Amino acid sequence: MTFISRGCFVLSTAGNTMVFSDRKSVSLSGFLAAIFILQVSVLAALLSAEKIGPQFLSISNPTYGETHSKEYCAMYDICGERSDGKVLNCPYGSPSVKPDELLSAKIQSLCPEISGNVCCTEAQFDTLRAQVQQAIPFLVGCPACLRNFLNLFCELSCSPNQSLFINVTSVSKVNGNLTVDAIDYFLTDTFGEGLYNSCKEVKFGTMNTRAIEFIGAGARNFKEWFEFIGQQADLGLPGSPYAINFQTSIPESSVMELMNVSVYSCGDSLLGCSCGDCPSSPVCSDLKPPPPHKNDFCSVRIGSLKVECVEFSLAILYIILVSAFFGWGLFHRTKERRPTSSMKPLLNFVDEDGINYVNVQKDEMKVHAMVPQMTNTVQLSIVQGYMSTFFRRYGTWVARNPTRVLFSSLAIVFILCLGLIRFEVETRPEKLWVSDGSKAAEEKHFFDSHLAPFYRIEQLILATMPDSKYGKSPSIVTEDNIQLLFEVQKKVDGLRANYSGNVVSLTDICLKPLGQDCATQSVLQYFKMDPENFDDYGGVGHAEYCFQHYTSADTCMSAFKAPLDPSTALGGFSGNNYSAASAFIVTYPVNNAVDEVGNENGKAVAWEKAFIQLVKDELLPMVQSSNLTLSFSSESSIEEELKRESTADVITILISYLVMFAYISVTLGDAPHWSTFYLSSKVLLGLSGVMVVLLSVLGSVAFFSAIGVKSTLIIMEVIPFLVLAVGVDNMCILVHAAKRQPLELPLEERISNALVEVGPSITLASLSEVLAFAVGGFISMPACRVFSMFAALAVLLDFLLQVTAFVALIVLDFLRAEDNRVDCFPCIKVPSSFVESDEVVGINQRNPGLLARYMEKVHARILGLWGVKIVVIAVFVAFSLASIALCTRIEPGLEQQIALPRDSYLQGYFNNITEYLRIGPPLYFVVRDYNYSSESRHTNQLCSISQCDSNSLLNEISRASLIPESSYIAKPAASWLDDFLVWISPEAFGCCRKFVNGSYCPPDDQPPCCTPDEGSCGLGGICKDCTTCFRHSDLDNDRPSTVQFREKLPWFLNALPSADCAKGGHGAYTSSVDLNGYESGIIQASEFRTYHTPLNKQGDYVSSMRAAREFSIRVSESLKIHIFPYSVFYIFFEQYLDIWRTALISIAIALGAVFIVCLAITSSIWSSAIIILVLAMIVVDLMGVMAILGIQLNAVSVVNLIMSIGIAVEFCVHISHAFSVSCGDRTQRAKEALCTMGSSVFSGITLTKLVGVIVLCFAKSEIFVVYYFQMYLALVFIGFLHGLVFLPVVLGMIGPPSRCVPIEKQQEVETTLHCS
């Protein structure tokens, strides 16, 4: 559901910073050293530098390179070192030198443009080669970019014409030797622009970003890039040891020239790059990303008013319908009405031909014994006839054997309740809200089992309070706030939890990518998580410096040796203005386990509970005292809060039950005189009815428990309320029908007549409700499916108990009252002398009350007016058509805030997540059964470097990231495959290396080649004989063979990244490839990581998932490779992809089921169609109210819509049934139906639901208020208006024809009939 979406934000937060498959971190100290190449030049150095000054060295000075001509050097050889080990060139000009054959071959291998004489010694070239090897892994995927980049520094270091475009402008003394301190480098704009354009889109997959972010500080043009490269670095920091001033114009009268070596386009035919690294390549011109999808709704413009086509069409339809209806009404207005008597059903009988009839007599008509009479009888359908016969016989039998019926029915329920022995409650969110056959669930299981489960997230968000005057939050990046954050961190580090007698701390469970440091995401990482470093590093100024240089400055590297992206530790800023951030975001990634067997996450859960308690007890007051806000969450917070929610509203539910019970007791009883109140009240009967409802719920729960279906806590709260609201109606209708019967009849006949009168409509309503609820069992979400199943069985059991146990209770209560026994204390009998005889007569008879008289004298008469009918039809049709238009505005989803208690601490947390986070959830594209063998094309169909297919997976992802507004993909994917192919490339000579014996040889700056205590690592030592794994001749078109791939892939995944080779896969891709069984040439599972754009609304989550799946399907079909997208929130949002389809199909099935039941019982298509029409209008109107109130469409609201059909049936079938058994014209029959059942529908159905629903508005859980109070309250009002206003008008105008048949019979009983 919605719960995990919180984790998504957090997970992305951690993932974006930690470059370790979003599950494991990576030591990217190599990146720090790799930045050296950004300013790599001739790399001369100065030891104990003594500045001479930034003077321009005159050409006339014979000491320093006075000649600027061909075959002449501006700098030659190395004259010193800086204290940090960086070498410095000699500033002396000299003629170029012819190298020996070996040096010439070396230079040619790196700088093919240079031949003949050179201006560099072997030591200078070795330094150049050692430094550029750090940049090659970033750029080798784009040969044109790499060649241009190498040419820039090859010309600077070794060009024989160096003096033509290099001018030494400043020198320094080192140990008495002059060394270069600054130079001018003259080159053309053409070369600068060509170099930049060929490299600007090259991707650095490990960090999901462009390589220019690392080797050019995100430069937007070549001048910014050169300015960054030319900065002179301070001691110990990466960069050039001397200043390089790039110039694109030559001073007047100068003999110097602009360096203009050939520059290669990234789309070059020989050195061309992939489409991902070079979107402008002609090869990629036909593969441009599709334009952003725009939701262009059809609209019609009327003057300055723009109306959507749907709304315009509905308006036209409304005008046509109302006009047609008005015309039809005028045509029939002059039709003469036939005078017929107003009748009421009493008895049914079967004539000689076996046809069922119901005898109907006029009000106040006195009929004497044995007098021939012409009476109107109603011909019933076959089913209704059988039902009437059954209910007559059954009612007589129950009245004679109430005790037997009562105890036998209760015995059956008690036997069912034995199933409660196996009662279990399901509280795990993934088991409640995710279907077993869910595609997302299967993909998650595959991902977790083959790659790695996502880590657990604990998070704190500290934020400043908005200014009261301007409403803007001030910056949180202040010294006091950072010191406060250190105090918070100290308490978190000191937290200890107990798990099975063991002490658990954060360091015991946190994610440790490399070493012993937790991968905590916090701005404190810029100080190595050590408060002692705050002042030493420069305080707030250092933090602000790191916001812009987090990838390059050594002091900005985190304690876990990875760069920390400030956007993951700060919030509430715009663009890259990190210093204006108004929130600190602290994330603690914790190791996770699949946890299918046992409790592998027990330690983490125990620590999380202690963490939440610490925040509540200590951290929250501490932060609030500093005038900041604090929101927080842990991985287990949602589940714990849901458990609390399940019991939070128990009191509210109980009050709702008590209110309905009190109302039932009042409405069931009559008190014609206060002196007989204790006899006429029905408190005991009402309480018994409530017990019947509870027993039906217990029976339902017990039955499903017996067959192994787990219950949910919400079932125990909602279903009793729901069944009580439904069951109360039938109780009121049964009691009112029994009290309407003449007292002159024996009790047996009164009970049987009451069942004959209302039994068919009660059966119809109950069966419709059961079927409508059962339709919810087809919903895939387990919680809603189980809820629907439990509710359907509970309603069925409630109906069966009502027509058995409750009818028996009615008989016993009538006998009690007639025997003058006190309600609630039936053992106490009141002497007859204390009760007036006329009062006793009225105890069990319902005289026409105020409501009944209103229905007869006011309501029915007003609805009979022609003008009122037109207005009613016009208004109701208008609202239904408007609701159809509004339905398009209902959004799918379920906001996290609604799913939790109102007082939950997660409410503020979710609000802050939406407000402050600037990163979306991580997105993985998982490839199944990747065939890496030489015979397969899969490798080129997946990768995105040179020679990969232009429509490869990674190229397609890169193109999709260019249109994030529709693809929801924020950036290109991190590719283990690209980095592996680069890592084994001969050009990346510092990466894949082997010892003489063929075993893996690490880069020169890693053990055993270089020990940590060495100040600098030389080229000698144990690794001096290491060679690259492959020569170009060993590879097939730069691709490894099957054997080479199989052998070197584990090397790559275990290789640590470092300065000499930043492409090492350990940490970054450790869990990106499933090596189980890979020896066969098939990799069962591998993933390519990217990120979604920030997702703030439920609709964004649904749309992003739909976009990712559509993208994967398209690419899978194109490449014939099984690819699927995965993100941690997909499993809970999958239901919303087709929630509209599920809702419409379920509603259609429910309406169809009700129609079949109505048709089977009434045998009237006409009557059944009218009922379905009204039910459909009720559902549509309810959806219109949902749109107005902003209620989202989800499994809960879909179940409510389906159940609303069952509940709405009660507002319709009783009126419709009364109409069908009345005689006269349609208007008279509609009036008779209102007189007979109107008061019962209003008091027994509308008010009973209303009093119970209103109490729910005081619930603590927002989900109760929104989805049960608001929706059910709307349903009650809409159902009441349709049942007692719209339906009588429709029946009075186009109702089914009368079934009255005049027959002659002998009437023996004199009676008087009142309309009530």
TrEMBL record:
GO terms for biological process: cholesterol metabolic process; sterol transport. Its main location: membrane. This is SSD domain-containing protein. It comes from Nyssa sinensis. Pfam families: NPC1_MLD, NPC1_N, Sterol-sensing. Keywords: Cholesterol metabolism, Disulfide bond, Glycoprotein, Lipid metabolism, Membrane, Signal, Steroid metabolism, Sterol metabolism, Transmembrane, Transmembrane helix, Transport. Residues 649-812 form the SSD domain. Belongs to the patched family. It is found in: Endomembrane system. The chain crosses the membrane at residues 26-47, 309-331, 646-664, 684-706, 718-738, 786-812, 863-887, 1139-1162, 1169-1191, 1197-1221, 1233-1259, 1271-1295. PROSITE patterns: SSD.
